[in-house]
Amino acid sequence: MQSHGSDVAVELNGSAEPIEFIVEGSRIRGTFYMPANAQGPVPAVVFAHGWSMVAGGDLEDYAASAVNAGFAALTFDFRNLGKSEGLPRQEIDPHRQVEDFRSAISYIRSRPEVNREKIGIWGSSYSGGHALYVAAIDKRVKCVVAQVPTISGFLAAQRRVSGDKAAALRLAFEADREARLTGAAPATILTVDADPNARVAYPGIDSYSYMTGEAARCPEWVNEITLRSLELARTYEPGVYIKRIAPTPLLMIAATEDALTPSDMQQEAFQQALEPKKLMLVPGGHYVVYREYFDKTSSAATAWFAEHLLG
Prior knowledge:
Blueprint: E1 14-23, E2 26-35, E3 42-48, H1 58-67, E4 72-76, H2 94-110, E5 114-124, H3 126-137, E6 141-147, H4 153-160, H5 163-181, E7 188-189, H6 205-215, E8 225-226, H7 227-233, E9 250-255, H8 263-272, E10 277-282, H9 294-309
Parallel strand pairs: 3-4, 3-5, 5-6, 6-9, 9-10
Antiparallel strand pairs: 1-2, 2-4, 7-8
Helix pairs in contact: 1-9, 2-3
């Protein structure tokens, strides 16, 4: 496997098995990994990607890093996205995604190859928020890595959209909600666009470059989300749960110039977390964790899992 934006290949030293499990009637699809020459039940890590992203790209590179260190791993697509079932397509509901994450934990604990008492989780960006939330409420999780995590959907949205644009967006949310009641199809919006002034969910050339770059490896990725996804994001406050994570060990990886999931919010939330915890900072914006600093961020995550789950 080739890590996106890196010259270093992540060659998987293990096996990869397509899997599926059902959540509330919808089939979730993913990949279960086992390290080569595994002896007995091994610790495992569940990996989930960020806003609108799907498995198949750099998520598999992060998983391979853990597998090569002796862990089983699971990657998957959330409901309504990628290879997984669920309607409406391209709707991102954080609360349903949390349930998907917890169901993935249930699935991996059911595998006889896995030590069910040594489960870690890894999430990045939107699912970095999920990782915080899940680690706080689900004590089957024994170790957590949250990379550039969403802390407050409401406050982050306020920074991105204000004034007349915010008022127009609120009216669009209301119109979509009322149209759905009559049976209309959900309103949609592009996720990214090369035009920095385009009306999209994630404006900016950095988001466009990263997501379209990953799309080259992930043919199931669709550059569109439902408008309601943005409304739902404004209800999501995973940072509220951070004090409840302890005594589960927490590693947070943040980028110093991150404006998408603002760095100051991440660092302030980290200060609220109880021990054991560790903060890793890398210079740059949101996407450097996947690109320029992939080797550093993947190695740090794997080392954290090794410290707390191996042995």
